[in-house]
Design goal:
With 423 residues, the chain is an alpha/beta fold. It contains 11 helices and 20 strands. It folds into 3 domains: 253 residues, Purple Acid Phosphatase, chain A, domain 2 (4-Layer Sandwich), CATH 3.60.21.10; 77 residues, no CATH class; 62 residues, no CATH class.
Length: 423
């Protein structure tokens, strides 16, 4: 039973719009975001707070932006403002992302308002006109580099603010770091300002509600849909996805998780250790025959060390095709941990692309024999990740290839200089 208290806001994060290239997943992704916006109107929220990674890249496909904009405009017509901070995927080395464009257009308000007084970071506070709620927040940067902001933060000034206060952030907290993300860059909870009524988190793709000394109502809503393969697996296993609605007056009165699962999932995992490729393929093919996949998203996790044959000989392409012919919305194959005894090279247990990319950079950077210390070890890995994010930007419409190449070189050089200056 929903009861209307004095005020209400929605807290969502990690929509990762544009994360998927497959048309079926893109459609579900946008449908889920649109559903979230409609639910916010339905539940009569006074404002929406997006805690990072609204889009999967800082400069996303314009078709994705256009679809999301239509949904956000409907919310705006209902008189519901949207507040946001950058996520690590929203950040761009050249300093401007689609979040800034939407902020300029008045579709949303970026609440990260930093100013430095010497080495101290002062945060501006955004006051919601209707409710009087005060929102302050720190945007993310790539690979956890926003930790420098937390180190420099003037917490005392924020703690002295009166009224109902929300602190928005897009970072993992060291004390709450999930066991399977033990190497993730995190922020120590002692660096957050104390005494806020609600700590609106993002970045962690596991839903959770926590309290730590001086920090009550720490909430991570998890991804709105599914940003990575790991998310697809969890959703196919039955994990609920969505966002929070929070009722408040002078303090938080109640929190509700709003489930938005837009598909049914089927999950199967297969350990192929000790089997040769033909045996493995026959075993998987036989097992999936009995699964009802019509109108469902199918996730097959395949791992282990095969006794013989190549991975290509398992026949996974044919298995995927047969499932699609039987009506599966999409078939996702996770074979990151599948190998043969002859396989060489590092195997990482982490399955999120950013984790694997970083570990590969760290492994390679540790072996680089170069005089510049900024290109060796962890610093080298950080710069590699920054450049990778930059070079993922697509060629602009009408931009000549030589101009695109020149722009990448120019912005890459600028980004490296900027990172060294802040390192």
């Amino acid at each position: 039973m929903w009861t209307r208290t004095l005020h209400r806001f929605a807290h969502l994060a990690d929509a990762h719009l544009g994360a998927h290239r497959e048309p079926a997943l893109q459609k579900l992704e946008l449908q889920t975001f649109d559903m979230a916006m409609h639910k916010c109107v339905e539940f009569g929220v006074d404002f929406i707070l997006v805690c990072g990674d609204l889009f999967h890249v800082g400069i996303p496909d314009l078709g994705i932006v256009n679809s999301a904009l239509k949904s956000m405009m409907e919310v705006q017509k209902a008189g519901i403002p949207i507040y946001a901070i950058y996520g690590s995927h929203d950040y761009t080395p050249n300093g401007t992302s689609v979040i800034d464009i939407l902020n300029t257009a008045g579709v949303l308000t970026n609440v990260f308002k930093p100013s430095f007084e010497g080495e101290n970071l002062r945060l501006g506070v955004t006051i919601d006109e209707k409710t009087g709620a005060k929102i302050a927040g720190i945007s993310a940067r790539k690979i956890g580099l926003e930790s420098h902001y937390f180190d420099a933060l003037d917490r005392k000034a924020l703690e002295q603010e009166e009224g109902f206060k929300i602190f928005a952030f897009h970072s993992g907290l060291t004390e709450l770091r999930p066991a399977d993300l033990s190497e993730m860059e995190t922020v120590r909870s002692e660096l957050l300002p104390k005494g806020f009524d609600y700590y609106a988190g993002g970045h962690i793709h596991d839903r959770g509600e926590f309290s730590l000394p001086g920090l009550d109502n720490i909430v991570f809503p998890g991804p709105l849909f599914t940003g990575h393969g790991r998310d697809l697996e969890a959703t196919a296993r039955g994990e609920r996805r969505g966002f929070y609605v929070v009722d408040f007056d002078r303090h938080v009165d109640a929190k509700y998780f709003i489930s938005l699962n837009t598909f049914e999932g089927v999950f199967r995992d297969y350990d192929l250790t000790g089997r040769n490729a033909p045996e493995a393929g026959a075993m998987i093919s036989e097992d999936v025959k009995g699964i009802d996949v019509s109108g469902k998203l199918v996730v097959l996790k395949i791992f282990g060390e095969m006794a013989g044959g190549n991975v290509s000989e398992v026949g996974l392409v044919g298995i995927r095709s047969s499932l699609a012919e039987r009506g599966a919305i999409h078939v996702y194959l996770n074979r990151n941990s599948l190998r043969t005894r002859e396989t060489a090279g590092p195997i990482f247990s982490g399955e999120e692309p950013a984790f694997i990319e970083r570990k590969l950079f760290e492994e390679r950077a540790a072996k680089v024999n170069i005089g510049d210390e900024h290109l060796r070890g962890q610093k080298g890995a950080e710069r590699g990740m920054v450049l990778l994010g930059l070079w993922r930007q697509p060629q602009k419409i009408g931009e000549m290839k030589r101009d695109y190449t020149a722009r990448m070189v120019r912005e890459g050089t600028k980004a490296l200089e900027k990172e060294e200056g802040k390192g």
